[in-house]
Amino acid sequence: MPQTGLKGPFQLNREIIDTVVTSSSGVYALGYVEIGGDFIPKYVGRSDNDINQILKDWTSSQYSQFKFECYDSPELAFTKECGLYHDWKEQLDNQEHPKKLEDTKWKCPRCESC
Ligand SMILES: [Zn+2]
Questions:
Q1: What local confidence, expressed as pLDDT, does residue 1 receive?
Q2: Average pLDDT, whole number, for the chain?
Q3: What is the Cα–Cα distance from 36 to 76, expressed in whole angstroms?
Q4: How far is the CA of 36 from the centre of ligand 1 (A)?
Q5: What is the dihedral of CA 24, 20, 30, 32, to 10 degrees?
Q6: Residue 42 Cα to ligand 1 middle (Å)
Q7: What is the largest CA-CA distance in the chain?
Q8: Which domains does the chain have, with CATH numbers?
Q9: pLDDT tens digits for 15-43?
Q10: Which of 4, 20, 22 is nearest to 81 (CA)?
Q11: What's the pTM value of the predicted model, to 2 decimals?
């Protein structure tokens, strides 16, 4: 398992999200923690303006834990999201490659798909 460079894992609930997620743009991974204590990522996402709210939207999902990192730059967040997506692609529930913000020239560092 590659190093994620993300904070966590944390329990996916509203109190914890409000305590630890204080910036607006960032990257997150949703998943669960194995009996041995390893975080198993199942979904990777990004928010360009409200990662706190997006994580709350996931609190009633099948995922129990999350990791995240906030970035001042949405482009940096996108680059990180792409990296995680490619690292974990085989095990993720994500069906599609991360999408760049409209009207930007962001490029995935790992492939040509955007
Ligand atoms: Zn890519």
A1: 47
A2: 93
A3: 32
A4: 31
A5: 180
A6: 17
A7: 44
A8: 7-91 (3.40.1440.10)
A9: 999 999 998 899 999 999 999 989 999 99
A10: 4
A11: 0.92
